[in-house]
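Complex record, two chains
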Amino acid sequence: MIAEPLVVVVGGGGVGKTTVAAALGVASARGGSATLVETFDPSRRLKDALGVGEEAADRPVAVPFETPAELCASLLDAKGTFDRLVVRYAPDAAARRRILDNRFYRHLSGSLAGVLEYMAVERLYELSEERRFSRIVLDTPPTAQALDFLNAPERIVAFLDSGALRIALKPWFDPRGRLAPTRRLGVLGRGVEAFFDTVVGLDLLKDMWEFFQAFAPLFDGFRGRALAVQALLRRPETVFVLVASAAHERIPDTLFFARKLAERGLRLAAVVLNRIHPELPPPPDGLAPAWAEQRRLLAWLGERDARGVAALKALLGSLPVVELPLVAEEPSTLPALERMADLLAARWPAVP
Amino acid sequence: MPPLLPQLRSRRLLVVTGKGGVGKTTMAAVLAVTLADAGRRVLLLEADPRENAHQLFDVPPSAGEIVQVSPRLALQNLSPRRVMDEVVRERLRLEVLVRRVLASPVYEHFAGGAPGLKEVALLGHAWRVLHGRAAATGRVDTVVLDAPATGHGVSLLRAPALVTEVIRSGPFARMARDISSLVGDASRCAVAVVTTLQEMPVQEALELLETLPGLLGRPLDVVVANAVLPPLARGADEADAAAEVWRRMHGAQQRELQRLKRGWDGPLVALPLLPLPAGRALVEALQRRWQEEAA
């Protein structure tokens, strides 16, 4: 199916991305490649099916499944991944502690848009460097806009690019973090002073200043790493799989995302349209009215999805579209994942 | 159990939350229309920058402005940044200072990175609207807030506490405290959790139902199950493959419904899956069902 060693599964929320990622992992391991599925917030039943619990946070755990090659799963721990980056690039133990103990940093990983997305890619980089697996399938965190995922490293680097902030804050705190006398600041200082005093409050500013101050020695290393991580996504061994709903009204979003991937030089292996409602044969005559109404709803769903599939295929041109039918229950047992893997394999376009 | 609608009618703020893709915006619109029909002046506040709510009413996109939908219902799509800028303007007054602050890298970092601030700005706007402090909204009785789909539903309502922890003084700290007291007051604020009867949305709804009451110090008000299928109709032809499809889909939903009910014994409104695209007709049809269900 997929020849490349790194597979990034992307898509909007609620489309069954995690399940498709797990099924791709199953297919890969059955094809003889030692495979890791790195996932984020899978459902309880999928966790059970894969046999992974909290112990799989940040650590590959073997999935109890007879395959020619091993299949492992692991859960993304964004905070842990960020902490490891700090440890890696901090010049010494004191610098490391100043960041890890900083109040602003502790809240940062949970609140700053893009941290989670970035840490997912960082983790992919980390794992690919370890070279333990011949294939890694990365299930990406749900984002309001799937696009957030693509520029997350740039955004975080821009945020951490503390030069501008350190200069702006410099007159405010002395090297020991105490508030400097303000009368020397002149007109510009008074503008900033008004802002600090009345809008932000000095506590937060001090936390932020200390954080950016402490982060400065790490910044070059961190930026270099981010560039490498971003470059990993563009390397020939990486492909994307976009999972989407077939519903006709979702097609513009899917198309938009596919185009953005192409614009960024990222390679889309296929679009997987998940949970397609079946098209129904025309109703027989003389149906009971209540059933006729239910059947019309099913027919409407089938017709809506069929229109979506047709429209997307026409618009995507040569890009492969893999169609997965609706199943009553989201696959969450290994046999069910195997069936989905079979279906994916059968419908996947041949690798040229 | 007292009827739900009169209860919700007296609240000033309705927060509609739940996992992305479950029909939150549609439900927020249904609630907003229902309250407007009951005589309240309603502002439907949307936070998703992609703007979907206007399509439900066939009005132009808001782009931050108030769009009047009907005499008692208005719509606004709001970026948190805009609210923060407004607060800065109010506090500093002097245009030259305002411009300098808004352009400064310190503010950029503060607005972009302070934990919980974006969420507090959204709730804060609702508070300001209700207290007549927001520009150009006129008198509003009820704000219906369609919670942003980013991340987890709990992050919006957890934000005031988070902000209070990291920002101790100034207008944003005060804003966070005002919101905490509004959101924590069950007589002024209602929280509705929307879900579809699928595993992950139900999971997130159950987590919200478990976490939020403790976090807010008050019970939640209603769970809305969206896109629900009724049992297979009598007289369905067993040989018809469609009947089997329906039966399986309904069975899977029922299992999730039972799970949801084990974690929630409060008001539960089930709204049907309808063969209608997102738009005014869908909102109207769901509103009729809501009124029947919630009566």
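Note: Residues 46 and 146 of chain B are 5 Å apart (CA to CA).
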